[in-house]
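[[Local backbone shapes]]
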Amino acid sequence: MKLDIFTEIQKARASWGDDHEQDVIEESLAQARLADELGYECWWQVEHHGATEFSYSSAPELLLTAISQQTSRLRLGHSGVLAPFKVNHPIRVAERAATLDRLS
């Protein structure tokens, strides 16, 4: 059986500390390394903007690139790209995905 991880990278406001943004990113990278070690197939990263407890994944391509540099076999998936022109121009979405592909 193949198992994937789908993550929104969220943290309840009640548990925020002074460096909660950095903590969330470091925790996500550690979770991805563990998923790789445990044999998970793919890490799916969603994109969120403007939601206080869910907006840690506003640049999923950057996080996926970092994960690709810290794991050896975990596949990466970009789930839920926001492509309206006011959020992300479709050409930039394609360019970032292509760059992620080359870096990973």
Observations:
- The mean pLDDT is 86.
